[in-house]
Amino acid sequence: MLSLLLLPLFAVSGPALAPARAQAQEQAQAQSQAQSPAPVRPRPRPRPRADIESIVSGCAWQRADRVGTVRAVITTNGFEHPLSRLFIEWVAAPTASIDAPSVVASLDFPELNASGRKLRIVSLDPARSPCRLVIDATDTHYDVPPTEQLTIVLRAPGVGVITARRVLPPPKPRVVTP
Questions:
Q1: ∠ CA 164-67-128 to the nearest 5 degrees?
Q2: b (16+ CB within 10 A) / e for 83-101
Q3: Rounded CA separation 158/178 (Å)
Q4: Nearest to residue 108, comparing CAs of 92, 84, 126?
Q5: How confident is the model over 74-95, as pLDDT tens digits?
Q6: How far, in Å, CA of 25 to CA of 110, rounded?
Q7: How many Cα neighbours within 13 Å face the side chain of 63?
Q8: How far apart are CA 108 and CA 6, in angstroms?
Q9: Distance CA 8, CA 13 (A)
Q10: How far apart, in whole angstroms, are the C-alpha atoms of residue 56 and residue 82?
Q11: What is the 3-state secondary structure (H, E, C) of 91-109?
């Protein structure tokens, strides 16, 4: 860098100076490239799915050298009679600062998802061991829709069992007085 500053003071102007200037510029450019880090490309962001109605995360899990959280995802389609699907995913925490979280296991409930009911997450209880997910499943094809409450026990990644089912009483009709 010092040679660049002193060069114009001692150099003679004219055609003899052109190669020295070009060499000095190349050296300065090489130094600046060596000092600046390589450009970091941003990761493309995934587009969110429009049919996702709710996502609830909680409940830590651990297996061998991996740790992470459990999340419940409900997707809903339809208008007059909405139909929902429940997916449970075990998401591993990143292992390095440049990694992203990854889904290591996913669980689908075909008997529940094919039933044509509207699902709603009531709770995901991380305080209990094993973790418990409680959902309401409402059949929207009736005037007074029956609702069933389901408890799903979540164990190791990819393992979940519906352990309890109970039918909730129908809502009481509202009385409006003039």
A1: 30
A2: bbbbbbbbbbeeeeeeeee
A3: 55
A4: 84
A5: 998 887 778 899 999 999 988 8
A6: 68
A7: 15
A8: 73
A9: 8
A10: 20
A11: EECCCCCCCCCEEEEEEEC
pLDDT digits (tens, 9 = 90+) for 10-57: 444 445 555 666 677 777 666 655 555 656 667 677 777 788 889 999
- The DSSP code sequence of 58-88 is EEEEEETTEEEEEEEEEEEE-SSS-EEEEEE
Residue whose pair of structure tokens reads 């200037």 in the numeric block = 21
Task: Determine contact, residues 92/78, Cβ cutoff 8 Å.
Answer: no
Q: Indicate the pTM of the whole model.
A: 0.65
What's the confidence (pLDDT) of residue 8?
Answer: 46
Helices and strands, number each (H, E), in the chain: 3, 8
What single-letter amino acid sits at 103?
V
Residue 115: CA atoms inside 13 Å, Cβ hemisphere, count? 18
Helix 2-10 with 17-35: angle, nearest 10 deg = 170
CA distances from 175 to 99, 144, 160, 178 (A): 56, 16, 42, 10
Retrieve residue 30's tokens.
């090489």
Calculate the CA 170 to chain-centre distance: 35
